[in-house]
Amino acid sequence: MAPPKPNKAKPTPSTSRGLMPVGDRHVTETQRPSRRDEHGNLPTTQRAIILRNGKHGAMGTGELVYSRRPSGREKLELLGEDLAEKAKTAVATPFRIEQCLKIADAQFNVYLDDICELRDSDIFYDTIQKEIFSRQASSSDPSILKDRNIVTTAIGSRVHNSYMLASIWKLIFNGLGNLKGDGLTNETARSRLQEDAALRTQYLIVYDTVNTLVDATQSKFSLLATTTSHFQQYFRKTEDDAVVFDSAALKNSYKSFIDSIVLELCLPDSIFPRPILTHILQEALEEAPRESKRFPQALWDALGDLSFAVQLQDILEALLRIPAAEVWKRSPREMPEEFQQWVDAQVLSEGAMSKLDGAVEFIFPFENTKRQSVLDKLWQTINSSCVEVAGSDMDALWNLTGERKRIPRWTAPAPAGGKNLSLVPAKGGKKAGPSLGKKKPLAIGYTDGNESGDSMPSLETVSDSDDDASESGESYWDTDDDDDESDDEGYEDGFDSETEDLMRDYLREAMDAALEHPDFLDPKKKLNMDELAEERKGNPFLKMLGALRGRMFSANPTLKTTDRQMPGARPATRAPSEPGVSSAKAPPTGPSSTPPTNRNVTVEDVEDEDNVSTAAKKKKKKPKKKKKPAAAAAAPSDANEQASTSPQAPASPPPATTPSSPPPPAAPANATSPKKKKPSAPKPAPAPAPRAPTTNGSATYLPHMSTTSIDLTRQQSAQSAHSYLQNEHVAEPKAKTKSRPAYGNLAPITERKSIFSKVGKNKQESGKQKEEDKQNLGGWFSGLGKKTKTYMHQLLRTSHDDKKGLAPMKWEQFLKIMRDMGFEYDPSTAGSSVRFDPPGEGARSITFHKPHPDPTIQPVMLKVFSKKLQDYYGWNEDDLLKHAAA
Known about the structure:
Distance between the termini: 85 Å
Number of strands: 12
Largest sheet: 3 strands, antiparallel
Radius of gyration: 36 Å
Number of helices: 26
Region (Disordered): 1-45, 409-498, 553-780
Strand content: under 5%
Helix content: 40-55%
InterPro entries: HicA_mRNA_interferase
Low-confidence stretches: 59-67, 423-489, 580-718, 730-734, 736-751
Structural class: mainly alpha
Strand order of the largest sheet: 1-2-7
GO molecular function, one term: mRNA binding
Pfam families: HicA_toxin
């Protein structure tokens, strides 16, 4: 019999739930790559320490040591001086005429878009509201919209500024186009300027105009900085409505690196070139993106526009960095008539906008402007005021007639294969190679402590957030994160503990020196820094005060680059131009600020004038008595002349006559003054016997006369200058000899095209071209991916948009749309301005302002983006719906 089998032990149930060995289960958060060194210094601080050690010989040239951290102002001076020295010997920025044209065309359309938005009732209210809030230190109070004076002033200055900047960008674009048409190429530009004097003059005129533009955009940036919550502490207004540096914030401005750069950008006449300042500011903000929150949206937009203007100025200066160019810049040149008209338009437009106060009561409450009928009436009032002052509407005054009417064009042919190739720009603006946009699979591998990642099949990622950020050329650590309080990228604004006491002593010493010299804090008075004691010359706060004092700009929000009060007071020639000096404000060459009046008028000219006036009188057949009230409606100059000799007006002292010309003869007592005088006097004849002064004589044209004894009982009547001379026997008639050549014998004069004459293609578009554009656009729409089509429906606000146009869009999502439509872009300039270049040849570039500090496009801004794309390229709902399902 077989032995019984032993009872089997019951198996112990396993407590393990793992099917395979696993690795470390601790979840570790990916850390942002730090830019700091082992001492906690940012790259700009490291370079500043190297430069300081090399400059002062602390530990040997070029040796980086851990020492006292430099202040913000000291860093700016070290880096700025180093870049300025390198710019003298380094390879200059290459001249690219095509890049200049793209910048000018895109920026011209930016301000032209602004004018169009001011005429759109869907956008006007929000635009002016942001304009008003950007000018107030406390921008959260909506009751300010009830102040009618503030609202009308904001409307007038915004309209004026948009027209002014659009007009000058048009001048620059046309000038650059004419230079290219005259054969100025990238390869032969330098040699052509040296050989062709006429082409060189045209180039310098465009260069002068760009300098004037940079001054205007800098003024716009400066004004917005004075009303921000952070930067307003550094400025104060003077009694004559000028803005200067406030010495009370000296310590804070000396500590902060970014604030020191902004101060130099705001105040005119900086010792650092503007390209260097914008470059250092951009680099500083890339190091510490959290610090960009000091810039509100309006100031960030103004910084972007200033950066593009400075970039264009830097490209044009590339051809002028030779010894011969210094002589070219100092040579006098006459600015063209188009530029002079633009300067005159500033005065006339400012006068027209000042008449809006009290004439636009119908827009209040301000919400009325959301109705298109009210907004159209407002623009009728604006144009009527402009016609009253300037004789033309706003478009004609600023030479922008017909420019607001665009013909949408999409010239890029559809990509082959139905897939859109997107050119992805890498960090720093370099464009990567073409990519089909295929997403990289996310592999989940088996691990047992060793590296083996090929044992599991790959999975496709379903999220596009990280993919969007990587494709856009923006690292995920560059985005703003309000919840991140690690402050790893924060700036070292402040002093070390061991230097805090030293800085406090320096500041106290600087304030004592300011009190000892009452003129020290007065920006209008000159101060000799050599008067300070030797031991105080090394004080950094005194040095900074000396560098910032006396620099001021106007607090008027209406931009103006001229000091003219009336149009027409123009200098005869253009003075030498330098960057940072306004073209309109530069003094003319010669001892006088105004051109001298030509007094060498012959009797022949007077007789010709008399014949013309006599013929006109016979043709009109009006009685002489009715001409008397017409004198009241004469030109302002005539009215001023009559007022200067009236009994109520004080007698003006006669101007001194030059010894080279004899004084004009005294007028007889029984002569009457002419009704209208030309700004010139007849050529003096031999002086007769002295006579009594005439009535109503103008000292402007008869400087030897006195207005102390005037016979007010004489009857005044209009009389020509020729009749006056004959009646008083001042000049005997003489035979009139022809000294001019016969016009039939003259060679025909070749009409030279102005440097600012309009260039460009004909705006007429044939039906065949329009149909071809639709086919091209349909091919691009059909090649979009599923997610991109969803974003496109939201952007164009189609009926397939699930969010009904009420949801915002991320900036990365908008970039994905533009990349998949073939656009290239270069986010390498400071500020929010981003220019997109379409794939088609000759197509118009488009510029958008990136939302800041939150990179989210709100519904109102998204509507602006949508309308711009429709106006530029014809993107519309019908074409998208037609090809979306393809």
